[in-house]
Amino acid sequence: MTAWSATQAQTAAAPAGEGLEEIVVTAQRRSENLQDVPISITAVRGERLEAAMAAGMDVRGLSGRVPSLIVESSYGRTFPRFYIRGLGNTDFDYNASQPVSLVYDDVVLENPVLKGFPVFDLDRVEVLRGPQGTLFGRNTTAGIVKFDSVKPGADTNGYAKLSYGRFNNVNAQGAVGTRLGDKAAVRISALYQRQDGYVDNVLPGGTTKDRFEGYEEFAARAQLLLQPVDTLDVLLTGQVRTLDGTARLFRANVFTRGQEGLNGNFVRDRVSVDGKNDQSVNSWNLSGRLTWDLGAVRLVSVTAYWEGDSTSVGDVDGGFGASFLPPALTGPGYIPFTAETRDTVPKLKQFTQEVRLESKGDGPLSYQGGVFYFDETLRIVSENYSTLGDPNNAAGGVNIIVSQRQASKAWGLFGSLTYKLTEDFSVTGGLRYNNDKRDYGVVRSRDTQFPNFLQNPLGTVNRNVSADNVTWDLSAQYKASEDVNLYAKVAKGFRAPSIQGRILFPPATATPLESGVTVGRSETIMSYEAGVKTTFLDGRGRFNLSGFLYDLKNAQLTAVGGGVNANRLINAKNVRGYGLEADFEIKPVPELLLTAGISYNHTEIRSPGLTTAACGAVRVDSFPNVSLCTILDPVVVPAAPFSPAIVNINGNSLPQSPRWIANWTARYGVPVGDGELYAYTDWAYRSKINFFLYDSVEFQDKHMLEGGLRIGYKTDRFDVAGFVRNITNDSSAVGGIDFNNLTGFVNEPRVWGIEAGIRF
């Protein structure tokens, strides 16, 4: 199938009827029925995807809407961090390595500046769970979130929709595609979103200074599909994104010592902070995909170039009123010292090239193989500010500057083949050679305004890491009946070494600057999975179930906080994970569609003697020191003045790794006139999560349940509806900052609005 014919198949609407629509995915680099793919995979599309992205929601809207998937961010609408089966990375630095890859139209996006690209005009989102290192990108020990946009096709088609909601929220998007003669087609897509700030910044005395959580964002995509000859397709794509708004809003002392969950002082629409807060992101790309039919095989080449820049500044201490001695407990409570940080990416460039050959025959053997190349250049500037208790000086002056540079190169050779031993039984094997290198340098300096703020030596540190590895997978699939597929899979994954040098506050050791730069050695994972995919009720129902077990060796973990605004990479000897995932879909009558998904994930750090700093929120006015959080792990080194305790984390679960994730939807439509009146509701639940590697009573959240409702009327062309997101106005903490008080950040509030759309 050429790109031209694949596009027509992709965008064609499935015929209406009593049965469920077939879900076509490309999880194995070829178009297949999801029920025939021997991978634990969930596809999100149509109304389900639109509901998750309603009211201008960014990619975090997918969190909990798929079994085993969590998405969170301490930056707001940029820098999403993905977790699959409990595996992710809480690191908030811009050079952080993530075990979950994001693949956008066959291009891997590694840096968080790029991963936050908006979701619009998509055919579907695929979440592939477990190592996918044979066919996709790099560093995919946990899995892949895969976005596939709607492509130019043979017919003229498109859509436009506009919504308006609470907080003056505007979401406008649309697309149009058409043929340009017999040899070309084009599709243009665009998105505009904005929202007013709804959180008042009320300093002591009740003066409103600023409003937070507002933004304005624009993104566009242009695609040109050329077919100069019948055997050659060339798809050219250009994309652009701009975002201006406020950064993630941190809330000081939103937790209370000895208590779980948000405290009674939490008010969603009010804060009292004295630091700066703003954010901007710009990115653009050009890419080309060539598909050449060579008879028995097909040659595919995907070339992509991305550039981006970003800056984000936030009040890390989360409030106003730094007080070194009691009883000066003003504003949001006790804050030992003030700190605001700005992280800027002045330069980001990413180039990727993939070339592969794919077999085309219908015989028992199918195969593909190719080469992949990745090249990234990244610069990061981190600045620390301090108001030093002066609310009239919001900047306070830069007192520490850290500049990082990183050049990453990787290449790989890969191949995969599937052989049908019988009509009902097939085996698939894949192999990949990975080679990865990073050159890194960091320098820390300080402004003359505060020359003695830190007594630690200053200087430059350089690091170079490299590794190569062979990853593989082997799966077997058996078609037990027309409606039942069984499969089993074993896979080895690999994540290259990574470097962390956020040395704004390096530890006070003999060589403090060097010890502030940490290296995470390469990790490998062995994953075992088995499952069943079924269709029942004459095609009106689907039920897919999988179970898995993995061992992550030399696991790269990020120790965040612990008394300093820094990250530290550590390696755990082993992380064991196991669990199950299920997807269910049924259409008992033509008017009603029900879906549900659930996952159970158990993760455990197995590394005797592994320690980390815990609870940087330490009272400095009392002796002996009194920690503001309640540590539940064994204490190896008790807290000293101005220093957190060192605790053993062996046996702990991973951060941002809930045991249970569940989602469910229901849609009911009644024919009225030329269309239907419909109601659609969707819900997502996750159980308790910890925010850090160590366990404490405070830095966690018990559970979160968010639901949405949409009621409207639609025809073949028009759709008018009212909607509500987070209908119960659930208030849950989604992350914390372990720095100098009990700071956290929370989920999005209830939003409602109206939407009108047209398709043609």
Strand content bin? over 45%
- Biggest beta-sheet profile: 22 strands, antiparallel, barrel
- Low-confidence parts: 1-16, 324-330, 388-395, 450-456, 508-513
Q: Structural class per helix/strand content?
A: mainly beta
Task: Give the N-to-C terminal Cα separation.
Answer: 26 Å
Q: Which overall shape is indicated by the principal axes computed on the Cα atoms?
A: globular
Please tally the helical runs, counting DSSP H or I stretches of 4 or more residues. Answer: 4
Average of per-residue pLDDT values: 88
- C-alpha Rg, in Å? 26 Å
Structure in words:
This protein is mainly β. It contains 4 helices and 45 strands. The strands form 10 sheets. The protein has a 22-stranded antiparallel barrel. Strands 3-8-9-6-7 form a 5-stranded mixed sheet. Strand 22 (398-420) and strand 23 form a beta hairpin. The longest helix is centred in the first third of the chain and has 9 residues, at 3-11. The radius of gyration is 26 Å and the shape is globular. The two termini are 26 Å apart. The model is unreliable at 1-16, 324-330, 388-395, 450-456 and 508-513 (pLDDT under 50).
